[in-house]
Amino acid sequence: MPRIRSVATAAKTATHSVASAASAVDRRAFLAATGAVSLSAGVGYALRPGSSHAAAGGPAPVALSRPAPAAPLMPYRGGTTLATVAAPRGGSGYRRLGDGPAWERVVRGDLAAAKPGREGRRTALAAFVQFTDLHLVDVQHPLRYEYLRAQTASAWRPQEALSVAGAVALVERVNALRGAPATGSPLHCVVTTGDNTDNNSRSELDWFLKAMSGGRITPNTGDPRRYEGVQDSGLKLYWHPDGDLRDADKARGFPRVDGFLQAALREVNSPGLALPWYSTVGNHDALPGGCWGPGDSYFTEFAVGGRKLMSLDESRGAALWKAVKKGRDPKGAQFKDLLKSESRRMRSVTPDESRAPFTPAEYVHAHLDPAYKGHGPVGHGYTQENLDAGTQYYSFRISDDVLGISLDTTDPAGHYEGSIGTDQLNWLERELKANEKKDGGSHVVVFSHHTSKTMRNLRQDPHRPREARHGGDEIVALLGRHRSVLAWVNGHSHKNDITAHQTPHGSFWEVSTASHIDFPQLARVVELTDNHDGTISLFTTLIESSAPHRTDYADLSQTGLAALYRELSFNAPGAKPTLGGEPGDRNTELILRKG
Q1: CA 485 from chain center: how many Å?
Q2: Is the pTM value of this prediction over 0.85?
Q3: Residues 6 or more apart whose Cβ sits within 8 Å of residue 510
Q4: Which residues, other chains included, contact 214 with Cβ-Cβ below 8 Å and sequence gap of 6+?
Q5: How far apart are CA 420 and CA 111, in angstroms?
Q6: Strand, helix or coil for residue 307
Q7: Residue 89 CB neighbour total at 10 angstroms
């Protein structure tokens, strides 16, 4: 293969109460700090994907060598949304951001009652950080459909040219955390839950891997000397930060920021995560545009070519997006016909082979490249076995007490909603059963891109025409049959949403986290603790990037751009104020019965 260039809601009316700001010292963290007991601080384990890792004869987990930052003895709030959250100032129009009030922690007893005294009894089981929907965007990519902006806010966002700087600032935030906020225990790893890239292009994959593992990134394709996208097109549909054009966004109060486009294409330096990290695939990582089935040579040729459509009659755009939303064009035939019919209206751009779409095999192969190892593990969950089997799902050890399972929920037949095939469903059940047979079994956290409610796309995989596809309801039922499963962690919806699943056989929490491209641009720390009273607590704590809430239009440094990235996302036309979720979807303690 060519090398990548350097390279939502169940009953929320049950017990919702704000927890006390003060919390007792976590006993296990204290004992670990004093040397009385060992903790797997910042240790991840690589397991064989596609096989029952717990079966007899399976390889023993291999510990990574990178330790996490030293854990404090007490829980903390600083650097999280428990301390402050970006909030708008002013009443209308384009609004500046500043420091806003904290989001307090809410205790949810939907699945089990919170018992008094648990703060002094609990011990930490695991702690990890979830990134989701980073959407690192090549804003000059010919296949981008910015002209559908009137139909969907995701077609083009005023902030997206700064997505790399924003992602690196999120990496910096995680590196600065003093451990897990609720318990003070060490963080074990970071897990992405898909849509790491936006256009399924090799350039974006290189940027993502470098942002996570460390390296220098130049977020530019095409002409290395100048920007060739929609933001200097002269079309009033788009915000033109440089210059005096009275575009539609400036009419809404968007600022003039001289030097913006030049700064947006400037080199960004990522320190890489100081923790092991694992990768889960999303529909934008697998499908052109996040919705059209791959394999059409026309889309590949168009992606690397020298023509780009920047405007479209609104009626034609509405018809195209209606077909996408209804799943009527999973192979992109209507999209291809539209591009061909609009060829005379396209503008010239510099061709670039790095914009080519990557295949599932190339996605795995790039993760296995030692150049992107960072603090490991090599492959970030994927192994040669995935390449050999043509799969993108695997198991991994989060801690001694907790097993992670990463799924591939993208439907290869096309459309942005998801499902899994029978082979993967059977593999998942084997993994859960094998885990439970070994020494009583570990607790389990399942990761995927799609939520249970967005897994309704049951089109047959063109590469496995006889294999059935299975949706969210079936996965909920399967996970509910295994009391080892504590949580299903995912993204896709770009919204904070926590759902309690109660099944006839068991219960678990579904934790969906907002994206890092749309406001409020968040990631989530998840902590698991044994309360030693027949219950387990899952703590969720939202974090923002390291960029300051206040931004100065004159500061076009890497940090200044990350701050501007957040403010622009708040003001983006079509931005939804509900993506932050309700208090019970944000910073929480989620109680459930111990299996």
Answers
A1: 21
A2: yes
A3: 451, 452, 476, 487, 488, 489, 490, 498, 499, 500, 501
A4: 270, 271, 272, 273, 374
A5: 27
A6: strand
A7: 12
